[in-house]
Design goal:
By secondary structure, this protein is α/β, with parallel strands linked by helices. The chain has 7 helices and 11 strands. The strands form 2 sheets. The chain has a 7-stranded mixed β-sheet, sandwiched between helices. A 4-stranded antiparallel β-sheet has the order 6-7-8-9. The longest helix is centred in the middle third of the chain and has 14 residues.
Length: 242
């Protein structure tokens, strides 16, 4: 399940400044245009960067996330007033018929059990119109991205207006089969306070994901390479059959 720390208001306020380059979302904006989507469901929308990008282009957007503090940040952004923000997850959606559903970033990897993953896919499937698409990315396990999750490779020191300098880094804590766990640190230099969290992501194999999509009634159209991280991630494009 998603890490509870994302519901911490202090983290929510600094999440975007700590990761200001969202060039990874450009490919998803391009796919929304490629598929001529007019309505989009953003699953795990977080602080709303992608949802607001789409709303600024005139799309009808629904963003859903279990972290209320992240949604509070999202609602204050430009173009947020036209987005439908839902506090919850893909298993508790109201009736929808969207052209496109997305899971950007690490969202597809936070579902650790088969039940969680299948229930999420099922909820999204119900929210898609016939012929609508689900697009999401997930890291290729063979590339072992977690080897770079060390303080040496991930340490950053960012000055944030109104907050001061914030140190951030990650440390790998364990690998067990497909499950990879790590510890995240945030240190606020202004007052010396810290936020820490323990998280786990699941690195599913490409064939396993394809099989789970088929079992939930999707047609897998293609698996693309992530344009911003070539060779490191899979981008799945699946369809609810007409």
């Amino acid at each position: 399940m998603p890490d509870a720390i994302f519901d911490d208001p202090r983290l929510a306020r600094v999440y975007d400044p700590l990761d200001p380059d969202r060039g990874d979302l450009d490919a998803y904006v391009a796919m929304a245009a490629e598929f001529e989507a007019r309505s989009v469901l953003d699953v795990g929308c977080g602080t709303g960067a992608f949802a607001c990008m789409l709303a600024a282009r005139g799309l009808e957007v629904t963003g859903v996330d279990p972290a209320g503090a992240s949604l509070d940040v999202a609602r204050a952004k430009p173009d947020a007033q036209t987005v439908r923000w839902l506090h919850g997850d893909a298993t508790s959606l109201p009736p929808l018929q969207v052209d496109l559903a997305t899971m950007t970033g690490n969202v597809a990897q936070v579902f650790l059990t088969d039940d969680e993953w299948n229930e999420t896919l099922g909820g999204v499937h119900a929210a898609l119109r016939p012929g609508g698409r689900l697009v999401f990315e997930t890291r290729d396990p063979a590339r072992r991205a977690w080897l770079g999750w060390t303080r040496e490779h991930s340490f950053g020191r960012t000055e944030i207006p109104g907050v001061g300098i914030v140190q951030s880094w990650e440390e790998l804590t364990g690998v067990s089969g497909e499950l990879v766990s790590f510890h995240s640190f945030l240190l606020f230099e202004a007052d010396g306070s810290a936020l820490t969290s323990d998280s786990t992501l699941r690195f599913r194999e490409r064939e396993e994901i394809a099989a789970s999509l088929a079992a939930l009634g999707y047609q897998l159209d293609e698996v693309r390479d992530a344009p911003d991280r070539p060779g490191l991630e899979f981008v799945f494009v699946a369809r609810r059959p007409s």
